[in-house]
Amino acid sequence: MFGFRLILHGVLFCPVDIAVCLLPTIFLKDLLNYFTLQQSSTTKKEALFNGLIISLVFFIRALSFTTLLLELTSLAMKFRIACSSLIYRKLLKMKSTTIQKFSLGQIVNLLSNDIEKIDRGVVFFNFLWIGPLKVIITAYYLVVTYGYSSIVGMAVPVLFLFIQKLMASIRRIEQFLLLEQKHTSNLPLLLESSFHNVDRNINKGAEESDQIFGVSLRNVNAKWDITSSNSNLTDVTITATSGELVAVVGAAGSGKSTLLQVILKEIPNLSGNLNIRGSLSYAPQEPWIFTGTLRENILFGEDMDERKYQEVIRACCLEQDISRFSFGDNTLVGEKGVMLSGGQKARVSLARAIYRDADVYLLDDPLSAVDVHVANIIFYECIRKHLKNKCVILVTHQVQFLENVDKVLLLDKGRVTASGNYSKIEGLIKKAVENCTEKDSSANIIPLKEYDRPSETHEDRGSETLNPYKSYCLAGHGWTTTCLLVIFFAFTQVLVNLYDCCLQIWVDGKEGSANSNTKIQNFLDDTHVLKKSNFHSYDCFG
């Protein structure tokens, strides 16, 4: 669709562009003959007509080019939106480990700079074949009109083009020889140069999840960085079935969130068996809120079921928050949910996961961003009651709720140190909590000697110096290059102004010469008439 419209615009514009390129030269020739030739066959009316045609042609050229540019810009914008949408859809299908192979700068560069280059390429693509065609037709016209000598004028720019390329090649060779070693940098992902490579990279690791039920891990080993020697999870074994609530606890960095990422297949399973039966619903630790209404963030593309929607709102303690908003759940939350607090974002993210009727729910510490009262309501009304028939894996630091879960999994440095009912491993959990508390307390203690001496600040005052400008000039290979550059710029401007002055002097001189010739001719005609009248007088009186 884009290709056909792109070529169609070029085909329609090509004849107009060629016509407005040749017609001014044809009419300009007759117009100049009127001012330069003494015995010109061009009348004053024809000269005025030629001038009018030239002005009209330039007007048509500007109008047609602006219209073409508008259409191509609109087409390029649609093409850019389509490419961006394709990239975003592919990114959403990628695993977290695959995305980590690309830096954020590469992805941003792909979605901004490279897409923008394609935008410009779409606008100026047709000129790749219109330009050579114009050159061929113009050369033919010049040869027919002025002979083969006109080819010399066309060959000079081409010759300078080859000289410039030769100088650039010599310059690159000099830089290569001056370097002690060749430095290579990571090449950016150029979308306009290889669509298939980008598509291959984006599709890398994209897999469809199997619709299965329940979660079972046996001797699973996984790590974020495959090249690293240390594993984030080591020999992890866990089983969760329908109607069972499994709590995962442990210190910060023990691998709790990593376990959920393994279940989501965002981290590759290096060894062991991972079986999932049923659809998954995930509530991340850091809520993701998009620009839209509160209802749209909860539904997240699902069909609206009023009864289920109200149950989810009630279970996630969002009724009072919605009642405080002027427009209820139709209130716009702003970019990244700026209108919501941290606790409200966490509950909206939880409500989104709960509203999706899944078989397995993975909840990554949804109780940490709310107060104790709200946490109690969410745990008992939402997790225990609303999801009582579902398989739920809950990552939490709220140990007061562990008595009401079916199974507790204690993680330490990526290993399962204890698992089972809370009553069986209560001692190990309390010991782990005490160790975490001691580490956090000692980490927050800062030696007093670090505050013995306040930091000193310095402030420079005074007028602005010329050092920055001097450094800027010296950055361009010294004063010699800078002076030559200034001279070349000035010389270029002088040539441009000299061209206009010479053209004006030439036109004025030709116009004055024509007037002088006319006056002389009139004088000679008057003298001739006078002589003839004298001869007739002599004949009459003599």
UniProtKB/TrEMBL annotation:
<dbReference type="InterPro" id="IPR050173">
    <property type="entry name" value="ABC_transporter_C-like"/>
</dbReference>
<feature type="transmembrane region" description="Helical">
    <location>
        <begin position="148"/>
        <end position="168"/>
    </location>
</feature>
<feature type="transmembrane region" description="Helical">
    <location>
        <begin position="47"/>
        <end position="70"/>
    </location>
</feature>
<dbReference type="GO" id="GO:0016020">
    <property type="term" value="C:membrane"/>
</dbReference>
<dbReference type="GO" id="GO:0005524">
    <property type="term" value="F:ATP binding"/>
</dbReference>
<protein>
    <submittedName>
        <fullName>Uncharacterized protein</fullName>
    </submittedName>
</protein>
<feature type="domain" description="ABC transporter">
    <location>
        <begin position="215"/>
        <end position="438"/>
    </location>
</feature>
<dbReference type="GO" id="GO:0016887">
    <property type="term" value="F:ATP hydrolysis activity"/>
</dbReference>
<dbReference type="InterPro" id="IPR027417">
    <property type="entry name" value="P-loop_NTPase"/>
</dbReference>
<dbReference type="Pfam" id="PF00664">
    <property type="entry name" value="ABC_membrane"/>
</dbReference>
<keyword id="KW-0812">Transmembrane</keyword>
<keyword id="KW-0472">Membrane</keyword>
<dbReference type="InterPro" id="IPR036640">
    <property type="entry name" value="ABC1_TM_sf"/>
</dbReference>
<keyword id="KW-0067">ATP-binding</keyword>
<dbReference type="GO" id="GO:0140359">
    <property type="term" value="F:ABC-type transporter activity"/>
</dbReference>
<dbReference type="InterPro" id="IPR003439">
    <property type="entry name" value="ABC_transporter-like_ATP-bd"/>
</dbReference>
<feature type="transmembrane region" description="Helical">
    <location>
        <begin position="122"/>
        <end position="142"/>
    </location>
</feature>
<keyword id="KW-0813">Transport</keyword>
<keyword id="KW-1133">Transmembrane helix</keyword>
<keyword id="KW-0547">Nucleotide-binding</keyword>
<keyword id="KW-0677">Repeat</keyword>
<feature type="domain" description="ABC transmembrane type-1">
    <location>
        <begin position="22"/>
        <end position="172"/>
    </location>
</feature>
<dbReference type="Pfam" id="PF00005">
    <property type="entry name" value="ABC_tran"/>
</dbReference>
<dbReference type="InterPro" id="IPR011527">
    <property type="entry name" value="ABC1_TM_dom"/>
</dbReference>
<dbReference type="InterPro" id="IPR017871">
    <property type="entry name" value="ABC_transporter-like_CS"/>
</dbReference>
<feature type="transmembrane region" description="Helical">
    <location>
        <begin position="7"/>
        <end position="27"/>
    </location>
</feature>
<dbReference type="InterPro" id="IPR003593">
    <property type="entry name" value="AAA+_ATPase"/>
</dbReference>
